[in-house]
Design brief:
Chain lengths: 280, 337
Amino acid sequence: MIPPILKNLLRIKKFDISVSIILFITLVGIIGPFVYTVDPTALHAPPEVPPNNKYPLGTDSYGRDLLAQLLHGIRSSLYIGLTASLISLAIGVTIGAVAGFKGGITDDSLMLVTNVVYALPSIMLMMLIAAYLKERNPLFVALIIGLTSWPWVARAVRSQLMSLKSRDFLAISRMAALSDLKIMFEDLIPNMASYIFMAFVLLMSGAMIAEAGLSMIGLGVTRGVSLGIILYWAQLLESVRRGLWWWFIPPGACLVSLATSMLLLSTSLDEYFSPRLRGR
Amino acid sequence: MSPVLRFLIRRIGFFALTFVVFTLVIFTLPRAIPGNPLSTLLSQLFQQAQANPELIRAVYKRLMDEFGVGKPLHEQFLLFISRTLKGDLGTSIAFYPRKVADIVFAYLPWSLGLLIPAVLTSWIIGNMLGALAGYKRTTALDNAMLPAFLTLSQTPYYWLAMIFLYIFAVNLGWLPIGGAYSSGRIPKLTLDFIVDMLRHYVLPYLSILLSSMGGWAIGMRSMVIYELGSDYVDYADSLGLSDSKILRYVFKNSMLPQVTGLALNFGSILGGSLITELVFNYPGTGFLLFRAISTLDYPLIQGVFMLLISTLLLANLIVDFVYAYIDPRIRTGYIGE
């Protein structure tokens, strides 16, 4: 019933731990807002109350419920992370695959573009673009992150492809006169699936951290909550100097646990798919 | 031409191209995004014109001149490039009539003074700890270190900064709660002032050091593990070479990719440290950028990025020089890149 690959993966402790944490926080973000139906933007509660029975994570300086903010924040950070990583993945895999597959001048020019974008730090490109957008909804923020974070994926996919290209089964497909597209989708992409999935996981954790960074400098979503936006308000209203630890600790802790689990997940997959690393 | 020289010329050409592309991005963005905030800013300026007509008219004229409004696009771009190369980054709106370049240069030293020592020490310590963990893999030491590295590498600098600030400054009161020196003091080179400055330096420095260390350590650890499984290590082992000698070879070979990594990650570390400055009210470019963003001071925002990217490309070029010097493959012309 359970596919054998999953059975094998479940034997890896790192895999189990990381997947459990990711699933737990994701479920909290998806289901949480339905169970705990407090409006995260309502200013009803008394301000700056530490965690208690009525307000499980306390309230902020405007009297907003911080548990409600956290639940909605996780949800929108996950949404931004997922959308951004899919965009980066699409761009990165396409450019890397075409460059590696076609070779020659196509490869040279695509890699030149990739390397130029790679040399410019993505977080600064993001800030620069975001600064010119007056209204920033979660989709825009995801787009900005997605459009600037792909170069390393393109480079990695290309180098993977280069090594695949020298394998024998590809020569056979060529002899059978299969079209480039067919070879790409039937021979090459399936062989890189595990690798692409790992890239996706890392892109997603990177995108969520980037979202928080953008928000902190004042360029996050303009309406609504995200983990970064909670941290931004906490920073702006001096929560640290005023000792309101319940304001800035939970969103950061969620972000760090999610991102660390994703990194751990990708390492465990790496160890599983490249036996050379196993048991070392 | 010697291989090293050829390598360096290619890299300089590449960075020049990158710089031109970046100026193009900075030039295009305000002109390409429809309904961009610049026009909002101008209409706001008009509304305020009653209150302070003289100043507003001056700012407006400056903006129009600097953006070259009314001229064809290619002329605007040439104007922009030639002004940039002359070091003229325009005039700030929020700090009118101060020049952007002057303002940024006043803040930049604080950022670099924080960033450079933190990056270098974290790179050195991270690589050493990573090599140790890789060498001692599958022992208790590695099992304890690896999760710590993983977590640290995913911790935003500014969040660690908030926690440090909360514990060591707010709760324990050991260190000051922000700024680069106590307010009311005038920067001068006395022992008293330097001690005061260092006390303000400790927490921001440690936050950047610790959270950027994890990434180096992980990279070095896997590199060492990879090298330990290679043929030359087996060969050296079978020759009966001592462990410490083999480890020296392994360390040398693992260092090369880490030098490249230093160049590649400089930018993201810089980005993280800009935000860390905010947490500590540290008067660097991050602090300036935040002000520029919240006042929609576009010339200043552009200027900050222009200077940061220039600094960064310069740092990358320095790393390339170092790389050309230490990588024997470049010396002998074995690889071109």
